[in-house]
Amino acid sequence: MRVAAAQSGPIQKADSRQAVVRRMIDLLDRAKAQRCDLVVFTELALTTFFPRWHMTDPAEVDACFEREMPSAATRPLFERAREHGIAFHLGYAELTPEGRRFNTAILVDRGGRTIGKYRKVHLPGHAEFDPARSFQHLEKRYFEPGDLGFPVWRAMGGILGMCICNDRRWPETWRVLGLQGVEMVVLGYNTPSVNSQKPGEGPQQRMFQHRLSLQAGAYQNSTWVVAAAKCGVEDGHPLMGGSMIVNPDGEVVAEAATLDDELVVADCDLDATAFGKQTVFDFARHRRVEHYGRITGQTGVILPPEE
Ligand code: ING
Hints:
This protein has 307 residues and is an alpha/beta fold. The protein has helices at 17-33, 58-62, 75-84, 139-142, 171-178, 203-220, 274-278, 283-286, 293-297; strands at residues 2-7, 38-40, 87-95, 101-108, 114-119, 152-155, 158-164, 184-189, 224-229, 232-234, 237-239, 244-246, 252-255, 262-267. The chain has a single domain, classed as Nitrilase/N-carbamoyl-D-aminoacid amidohydrolase, CATH 3.60.110.
């Protein structure tokens, strides 16, 4: 199928959801012109990356979340996608009727029906203001860890899965999806170009680790990966680009050239995942689970006894 990573340029704190949705609809129209079947929007696609802000006013925090999806602001997006017959992935901040908050992503089919939901499991950063950081990363303040696991769905003639941003850095994310036969993993990310705790770490190193995570995940589970950034400078804070599509051999087949709204398009043959799954990563033939107990048996490191 023809897939587009719909990279988002910066969203300023003052930008309205309506203005953002208009930009997203423009990307949908461009994807239609390129005969795309699936469009992957980014993480927290409707707002600025608000976890960089330490907020104490509940009303200010709530304003960053969606109480329903589609909402009044996003319904035009769902309608345009349905008109185009394009399926899409969308990341947003979810506030449930019970008052629970998640960093969420959904999969919407060509008919505009939401067929899958994922809630970000690996929340980076911290919960309280950290004066030692050059900027904040308060995802542990504003979201609960996801409670839906790492599901896959049969859609678009294949097996699709989702993850979100920091999830891509954890091999467990990819392997749990791989153990369900995933053929394409779609994700969004909002990644600061610099490390708030390590001034020397700049965009090049961040980009290296981003690519490494996607290529390893794709190769080691013989799956396609489609990753869409929110990037550019948001209220003075730079986010990195690098939206890309990686094939089941771990090769980058398409990559963004800008730090703005941009479609990164590739034709993805899901059958290309079969060879790896039937040979080097035929899990049934090669894995030895009797030796993997630590992976789910312990959370942190247990060091060997001192000499
Ligand atoms: N952002 C970053 C990410 O995982 C981060 C946070 C960057 C954590 C670099 C560790 C290292 O890409 C989000 N939103 O998770």
